[in-house]
Amino acid sequence: MLLYRLIMLGFILLTGVLVSIKGGVITYTLFALALLIPVSSAVYLFYVFIRFRIYQFVDRKTVVKCQQVPYVFTLANEDIITYASVRVTFLTDFSTYEHVDSDKKYCLSSCERINHETMISCKYRGEYTIGIDKVIITDFFNLFHMTYSCPSKINVRVLPRVVTLDTLSIAPSEEDMKQNRRNPEGASMIPDNEVRQFYNGDPQNRIHWKSTAKTQKLMVRNFMAEPKPSMSVFLDTSLPSLSEKDAIIYSDKVIECALAISNYLLMHKTDNIVFYEKRTLMHQAVQSKADFDLLYNTCCQLPFHKKEAGSILLMSGLLLLGAPSHCIVLTAAPTKELGIACNEALNFGHTITVLAIGTSTAEFLGLLDKKIGFYQLKPDQEVNDVLS
Amino acid sequence: MSSLKFHFEKHAFLCILTYLTTAGLLRLLALLTPLGIPLFLSLLLPMICILIIRFLDCHREYIPVALITIGLLLLTLIYVYYKKGELPSLFSSFTALWTAPEQETEFPWLIFVQILILSVALSLPVYFLQQNILFRCITSAALFTVIVLLSVFEAEPEKIMILLFCGQILFVLFELMHRHTFPGPEDKQTVRTLYLYPAVLLLLAAIAFTPYNKDPIQWTLVKSVWANVVQTVSTLATNISLRFQGTSHVFEISFAGYSQDGDLGGNVKENNTNTLIISSSKLISQPVYLFGNQKNVYTGSDWSLSFSDSKATARYPEYILDTVEILYAVERCGFSESDHDVLYQNLFKTQEYNIAFHELRTRTIFYPAKTRHIFFTDTNTDDLLSSNLTFAQLQGPTTAYSLSFLEMNLGSPEFEALLKTSYSYDNSYSIDASSMTHLLRRNSITDFTGNHDELESILLQRSNEIRLDYLNLPASLPSRVKELAIELTKNASTDYEKLLAIEAYLRTYTYTLTPGSIPEDEDAVDYFLFTTKEGYCTYFATAMAVLSRCVGIPSRYVQGYCLRPQETDDFIYYVTNSDAHAWPECYLQGIGWIPFEPTPGFSAARYHPWHYETSNGTGYTENVYEPEISEIPEISMIPEVTSTSEAHSYKNTLLLSIIVPVMLFLLIAGYLLIKVKQAKNTYSHLSDNRKMAYNMAILYDLSKAMKIQTDESQTLQEHFKVLQNKYPELETVLFLLEEQYMCLRYGPAAMGDQAAAASLVFADQVRIFLLQQCRMNKSLLSYLALQVRLTLQYKVLP
């Protein structure tokens, strides 16, 4: 473009010099031609800007993260004049497109339409815009170009993905709660069986003689499952000061981790409670698929904020729990207060594991007690890389 | 429609290109040959030919039919005319069309045939050439070359021809650029290029309406705009430099547009910006020369300033000594008392001026020759002793001062006679004390306090210093300048006559404001005197000063303003930049510095004698000299702006009406903020129990305000239950809050820090939530009223 502009400028200067030296119809006409070419280019650009039509369509507006969705965009020339050069760029921060080249230029002659069908997938959970970002039109002499934002944007709502984990490396190893020395009132006080009346056909070795003596009726044991320790997941919805893009990425990672962990625990028949803040402190016990679905729906719209609330969330959740528990803290804003809260929680007999999303966590790690498990998930890493 | 579009896309591009070239070539033929080709036919017939050629090219099976048809037509024509017996004349007419086109033809329709033949002959090869991109490029290049050659050989083609060629060139350019950007099948390329025809048409139509002229463009508008811009920028730069160089800038004639950098030479442009406003006590009837500054060292290209130590003017201002010198000269004439009045009346006129700066920023004090006294309203003066009087700081539009001086009647015979005398301060005349006192008092000169017996020695000393400082000439001055000076003054006996001779000679030169620049290796005076012989005031002033020095008369180059008489009803005169002037002043021993006017056009009014009365006259004219001994009154006749006070009162009212409410608001807001801060401080020092109680009270109050079912007999648990039922999302936090509060009220131990902090956070969350609900359910006014009440009552800012 620079070369063409220089040529044009040289032509203007040359004809200007000629018309300053010599009069006549030829020199004046050439000079007028030299001056009017840039003017006509500008007018042409403006005309194309007004008349150019661009359509884009996505199969559905609510998608799941990383799910491929059909996407179509159409460039249309509904005019009698050729659109010499049109280029479109796409929003690629949060979405990817198959077989689409942002550097490709299109030329549309009169009444021509170019249809491009492809697949789009969204990289993060949240609500944002996808599709065509800007349209760049160039005139027929390659002198000027005009860039403008695509007038019709596509806003999509991207739901979080539930990652199925084979193992959960960050969960503490299973222990016999009955032998939990930290808890003087541990599960050893919980009866590991129930008794019921004897029916014909019950094996005799299951007769509970003590209860039988007490009740003067024949009673048999009815085993309960060995009590498993409960797990608590603390979903810290606070974010540090980040750009809009990073905020979406970090929040997506936190949600994804929470869902993956909760799903894993549910699949392994471990009850878990997820604590989060949505205007106020809230919690969701996940003991069945329906509970998990409720949690998932909540996570789809869970807002994140910049106010530091991780420590409050942890302490208030632990107050609610009462009994010691295994706690997994998911946070994108590992602050000093949260570190202190984790240490305090440890003193109260809880098992704490912290999964921090982000890159600068060294200072936070220094605050934590050595008995607290710490894991870091970088924004460019997948959940599987750390949790499995 | 789609079929039409299809055919258009298939055929139009080639046809358009061929048509543009063929029609253009026909017009070219019309230009270069004597063939008379009418414009209409040369535009119409190629179109028809090309369409037919294209049709036949696409449907070659019709070619024999076409040829047969044409042949039959021809044969029919020949047969008809043969029958009429006009066949020979037809052939001869047809031949004459080509060989002698200026002749009238018997068969006008043959012109049509001629053009048809030409169209076919041109369009056929062009058509086949245009089918290949390479030949299209070659054709375009050839056409452009033809245009250039026509211009070189000063042919005057029609505009339509150039437009046709330009159309062809533009289309080929578009096609080339498109191919470069979008390589692909040729048919698609041509279609895309074809559909740029609206842009080409519009461009050519716009060019068709642009005017043209036989003469080249003069760029007068551009030049004048440029000149205005340059002048504005240079004025701005001058003003900026004046602002920042407050302690150095004295008046230079270059302010007013005379030359660019202070050197002599260069063109000048007139500028009518008002610089000074002068209020006079009397009508100004002849030009007034206001002394700005003077220079004494001529370098060959400009003037500079350099003095030896001056002992005379170390005691008294130079301008006072100059005035005393001329009055002493009159005194030496020895007139009787009764003749004195007449003499003075014919020699001098007292004038009082009040000078105010207008659009001028300088440190220079302007004054006329023979000034008696200068009154300043403040003492911001720097140098009052030398000739170049200055203020200490840069002065601007508010500066004014008044002065009185003796205006000289240079045209009167008495004055001429006085100027022709010379005196060598050899004590041949001595003045007694009373005469001197009388002389000074009569002329109201109070700044000279010397004794009568030292007057001559002071004037002699001054004369010697003047000779030392004002006779120098550069060694590089060509000798012919001196020879010219001697030649001009060979018949003069006195210094004054010599100066008059030089002045008269210079007045024969030409006055112009655009003399051009002086070459760097030339002496300015020499170049002016012997080469250009034209210039403006600085040239003439410099030349006369140099020529005077060549014959041994001290002279100086003076810059200032020359105020010419103007029409006025109120004796107020406006000095503009156009009045900036340069003139020479020459020293006549015993007389003092006398200004001369060698510039053509300025001298006539200068040497015009006033009306004067003799001693036998019955009355006085306005130019009468009044020899009363009185103090010079202070004059304040500067026009004042009367609307300032009104403007001030309006401004004051506006300021008050804005400032007072703002101040009040700030005071009230400040008071409230201080109170709240105090309350917050107090709150922060409360115990956790008290804080908790405080927050619970707020929550209860909020619930009441929102008309949530409350009862005095309710327990806290019951109240929270009601809240939980109404707002399920508060379930968790209310549960925790209730627990904490119960521990606090009834528990055995105080809350831990973390628990206290957590409980306060819970309370905050509930409060904020309730307030949001309040905002949604209440009107804005009610909500604001609730906010204010809570703030005042509980001194927190929710």
What do these coordinates show?
The complex is a heterodimer of chains A (388) and B (798). By secondary structure, chain A is an alpha/beta fold. Chain A has three domains: 50-159, Immunoglobulins (Immunoglobulin-like, Sandwich); 191-223, no CATH class; 231-387, 3-Layer(aba) Sandwich (Rossmann fold). Chain A contains nine helices and 19 strands. Chain A has helices spanning 2-21, 25-51, 209-215, 244-267, 289-300, 310-321, 336-347, 362-367, 383-387, and strands spanning 53-58, 62-64, 68-76, 83-90, 95-97, 105-108, 113-122, 126-130, 132-138, 145-149, 154-159, 193-197, 219-223, 231-235, 272-278, 280-286, 326-331, 351-357, 373-377. Chain A has a six-stranded mixed beta sheet, with helices on both faces. In chain A, helix 1 packs antiparallel against helix 2, helix 4 (244-267) packs antiparallel against helix 5 (289-300) and helix 6 (310-321) packs parallel to helix 7. Residues 176-192 of chain A have low confidence and may be disordered. Chain B is of the alpha+beta class and 798 residues long. Chain B folds into four domains: 2-208, no CATH class; 253-259 and 275-606, no CATH class; 647-674; 686-794. Helix content of chain B is 54%, strand content 11%. Chain B has 26 helices and 17 strands. In chain B, strands 8-11-5-1-15 form a five-stranded antiparallel beta sheet. Chain B has a five-stranded antiparallel beta sheet with strand order 7-2-14-16-17. In chain B, a hairpin with a 3-residue loop joins strand 16 (580-588) and strand 17 (592-595). In chain B, helix 23 runs antiparallel to helix 24. The longest helix of chain B has 41 residues, at 644-684. Chain B is flat and about 125 Å long. At the A-B interface, helix 1, helix 2, strand 16 and helix 6 of A face helix 6, helix 7, helix 8, helix 9 and helix 24 of B.
